Amino acid sequence: MKAFLRDNGLGLVFGLLFLASLVGQAFSGNAALNERRLTDGGDPIGLWAYVLSSDFAVDVAENWQSEYLQFFLFIIATVWLVQRGSNESKPVDRIGAESDERQRLGAHAGPDSPKWARVGGWRTSWYSNSLGLVMLALFLGSWLAQSIAGHSAHNAAQLADFQDPVTWPEYLVSADFWNRSLQNWQSEFLAIGSMAVFSVYLRQRGSPESKPVGAPHDTTADSG
User: Fold this and answer.
1) pTM of the model
2) What range does the domain containing 3 cover?
3) Structural domains in the chain (count)
4) Could you read off the pLDDT of 142-179 as tens digits, one per residue?
5) What would the pLDDT profile of 206-224 be if each residue is shown by its tens digit?
6) 81 with 163, same domain?
7) What confidence score (pLDDT) does residue 224 get?
8) Distance between CA 13 and CA 27 in Å, rounded?
């Protein structure tokens, strides 16, 4: 058990942090919604009813989609774009998808390589891009969920204000949908760009996200 916890500590800790923050969001979001409902003369709703509501779903989905968009774009961008001196970049002489030999594909695969890296054909092609494809699918799925939940929450607010509801296609071009999306996207792009540039000049001893403390600023892709 100790070996399992050690070997999976990063995933386990962030999994627990995710669950704790999701539960905290449910309680705080329910309290905030009930404050608004009471202010508007409505009745409060219970925690479970809030968790099943479109208000909670859209708040969760809009954050998830921006995170997966960030990772998808970063994974794809770092194939072709580099940042000299950054530990978030590969070396500047390795721009592109790289050779089969460097990627250990087909005849260059080892006996312990994943099976689909060895077999060739469409399976190797798919597996070679599987991380980006899964991140793209998760982004599109959560963005779709945001649009559906946001449409429901928006129409509930419209009806509460005695205004006509809108169709889903109308909601997709509405200010509410794009405001929810873009306010998350800009923060993700700022964070990933800042990390790429800050890691050129700043260090965190012992972290693989940082170069060794004594490494020159122009050293690229050298984990500490």
Assistant:
1) 0.90
2) 1-52
3) 2
4) 999 999 999 999 999 898 888 999 999 999 999 999 99
5) 998 888 899 899 888 877 6
6) yes
7) 61
8) 21
